[in-house]
Amino acid sequence: MDIHPIRNDADHEAALREIEALWGADEESEAGDRLDVLVTLVEDYERRRWPIEPLDPVRAIEAAMEMNGYTRTQLAKLIGQSRATEILSRKRALTLPMIRKIAGAWHVPEKVLVQEYALAEM
After folding, report:
1. How far is CA 115 from CA 60, 73, 74, in A?
2. Strands, DSSP E only, in 37-99?
3. pLDDT at 53
4. Using CA atoms, how far apart are residues 106 and 116, in angstroms rounded to an integer?
5. Distance between CA atoms of 1 and 17, rounded to whole angstroms?
6. pTM of the predicted model, to two decimals?
7. Of 59, 85, 89, 60, which is closest to residue 72 (Cα–Cα)?
8. Torsion 55-60-62-67 (CA) sign
9. Beta carbons within 8 Å of 60's beta carbon, 6+ residues apart
10. At what angle do helices 57-68 and 72-79 cross, to 10 degrees?
């Protein structure tokens, strides 16, 4: 099995082409083993090449709103109208009761919502 590390975008593209050709190979075969190793190498390269920054609490709320079709009105019903506006505009930090309500209702992980984040300067 002639496999080498993925060190650049050309190596990455070649590995993706080979993965596509091997897709669906029997897990117990040499081709299946090769596919498994290549997928692992590609995932590692992509994680290093294009790291994903963790969302801060406000971005996590906005992402939940966007992904699930939630509105500001729905957020306001959870935490209060003025609080929702202040949170989304970064004028006020989330409180523990707000975090619990959002996490429980919208399934946003509490560990994301309890992080410190920058507030707008006043």
Report:
1. 11, 24, 22
2. none
3. 84
4. 20
5. 16
6. 0.62
7. 85
8. positive
9. 108, 109, 112, 113
10. 120
Buried b (16+ CB within 10 A) or exposed e, 25-43: eeeeeebebbbeebeebbe
Q: Are 98 and 83 in contact (CB under 8 A)?
A: yes
Go through the chain and tell me how many residues it has.
122
Backbone angles phi, psi at 3, to 5 degrees: -125, 140
Give the pLDDT confidence of 58-110 residue by residue, as tens digits.
Answer: 999 999 999 999 999 999 999 999 999 999 999 999 999 999 999 999 999 99
CA distance 111 to 64: 15
